[in-house]
Amino acid sequence: MPGDLKDGRIVIVGASLAGLRAAEALREEGFTGSLTVVGDEPYAPYDRPPLSKQVLLGQATADTTDLPMRMNPDAEWRLGVRATGVDLLAKQVLLEDGESLPYDRLLITTGTRARPWPDPDEAALEGVFTLRTREDGAGLAERLAAQPERVLVIGAGFTGSEIASACRELGVDVTVAERGPAPLVGALGGTLSKLAAVMQRNHGVDLRTGVTVTALKGNGSFTGAELSDGSRVDADVCVVALGAVRNVEWLADSGLAAGPRGVACDAGCRAFNMYGIVTDDVFVAGDVSRFPHPLFGYQMLSLEHWGNAVEQAEVAAHNMVNPGPLQRPHLSIPTFWSTQFGLNIKSVGVPTYSDHVVIAQGSLEARRLAMVYGYQGRVTAAVTVDMAKALDYYRHLIETAAPFPPPPGAQDRAIAADITIPSEVPDPSVLSHGPTVALTGHLPDRRLAVV
After folding, report:
1. Which tens digit of pLDDT belongs to each residue from 121-141?
2. Is the peptide bond before 405 cis (omega within 30 degrees of 0)?
3. pLDDT single digits (tens) 68-98
4. Domains of the chain
5. Could you give the C-alpha distances from 372 to 24, 59, 421, in angstroms and in order?
6. Facing residues of 226 across strands?
7. What angle do CA 196, 202, 203 make, to 5 degrees?
8. What letter does residue 40 receive in the DSSP assignment?
9. Which of 91, 189, 378, 436 is 20 to 30 Å apart from 279, CA to CA?
């Protein structure tokens, strides 16, 4: 009966942004039953974006990044304890301390963790960091405040680029090593990534592209690294920014569709089991989820974005306590933002789902522009640099599957649009940073038959 959905036991695994917003939304939706939130870190949910920005610049400390609660969700918080499995038949979450938590409905919001440096001995050198947790942020901020001689950043995705930007703002020399042809190329494609490379070099970054780091050197403490081109970088701090790993290992024996790309779910956030059958009592939200999107060919999307975690958590919570006909789909358009080297970069849609781009407003030379991405003749994404007000117009074009190149509308040009050019979306395997929005079916230009 519909009434029963407002009662019972709900367990949320993942004391994350998505976990907190879902807990609040469950109560706002009228859920009156017992609510338990499990988190492997000892802290209440906190915000991660400031860790690569304000915290590194000394404008905030890592312990002041707690997420504000919109309301007290009246939950039992089980913090500092890791979930080790789910028994779908018995409807129990298994915990590291041997306890098991019974549930009527389960929400998985375990998110991602930083991809570690592959050599554990080298990763353990003093002065080698990843940046994901509060401890990471506090430790790295302390090292940067002490003005090291040089910092080596491995990986030029958003996190790596923001760290490099913070180093230059603090007056610290920084070398960035990226396997791909330019910073941010995995997220933004070839044209805009060229602007990112120019901006880094103009701000004094020693940017090395097309190279990999082959070894981290040091005797107890990090002293430098060897690169694939035979060169050596001497540095006393190293930040490994090689992207994220989805926290799904604890689900390995659960029978859910969990893998390296996350936990697959339908548009209503209901998790699939390993046979592709949708469950009606296990839901998933945030960075750990993969969900189909009609605007992008019904491919499964994996997103590592703040806004998506919030919106998906609210849809999942709504669907957990409402019967089928009242359930809603999670169909929001991906958006993200980044501030680095004095530029405000904002994106809407999926730039990697494209075959051509056009600069619709502004110019690369002016470093103020709106770039629109298209796939097979329709608009699929837009990225603005210091022109965020234009984004709403382009979001509308994406939502309505408007033709590409876009008609004159938001354009500050007399002609319809400039010449379209290939979007140069690289194969993710040639990058060290990986995209923050991934279509996990096929890339448009690589239709591979998999037997």
Report:
1. 999 999 999 999 999 999 999
2. yes
3. 999 999 999 999 999 999 999 999 999 999 9
4. 2-47+66-113+245-326 (3.50.50.60), 116-242 (3.50.50.60), 335-439 (3.30.390.30)
5. 36, 34, 11
6. 215, 232
7. 95
8. S
9. 436
